Amino acid sequence: MKYTAFGLAAAALSAVPLAAAHGFVSKIVIDGTTYKGNSPGGSTSDSAIRQISTIDPVKGATNKAVNCGPDAQPAALLADANPGSSIEITWSGGDNTLWPHNTGPLISYLASCGDTPCEQFDAINAKWFKIDQAGRKDNGDWFQQDLMSGGTYTLSLPDNLASGNYMMRHEIIALHLATSKGGAEFYPSCFQLAVGGSKTGTPSEDDLVSLPGAYSDNDPGIFDPNVFDTNVEYQFPGPAIAVLADNGSSSGSNSGSTSASSTKSASATGTKTRGSVDPTSTASSNDTGAASPSSSSGKCSLKKKNSLKKRSKINYPHHISRVMRSLYHHS
To answer: So which residues are the signal peptide here (predicted)?
Structure first.
């Protein structure tokens, strides 16, 4: 029996152990202050990151868990931030291994907690506005690839963001199975922020969406038969970048970046009280666990584009590429 190359690719991909294919946000660093995340389903300590129950992905764009993750629980802390603050995010695989995927976008949203303390806020009622999205780099690799290589992702809050308490929702949409409808894997994570300062910027009503609600399993950026073909431009799902966060960019992308470098220790811990933080630069960590507070200087800034240039190669996930090369040569 002669198999098609695509069929063999699907078979090879399905053989990858599922335990290696899941993960969570293990820590965030905001202006040099580290907030440690709790392992999914594990013991709980004070954190600004809402704890989820499992490292498994959310399946289905209308699944309730696409909001903040499976059984996400309110956190005890609010992470202090200011307009323009730098937020560095560390994604880890199960057992604090490296993030296992390299295909698909990273997308970030904010929502005001309003008059409700964020520690009590039900995120299913949140009205989200998009502040950042990262797809492919100019060389055709996804920004997500850097996470698989031990890097982190860094973005900035809008420069004119009004003071107040906010939920931040950051997600990876893993698309290595998205050539089939329903194959996309959602990995959302929510953080609780206390934003200080005296700015007054708020999103317009047109920028606000609900999650679930903003995505469909039929969206081109979620069901994507051409996801491995860099000749085809990737279309981000959900709304455009909110005007508040657009910074005048016609591309609709913010200034997030991925990077990987050594870390330096810092004396910084989370707090249960709301306050201001003086913005300072942060950089990446190769630490895959949620360990001691850290910050570092120097990061590789890579400009993202909402519309991605056409390229002349097909990029398959790295964890099946060697298998595929052999299969193609014998098909």
So the answer is: 1-21
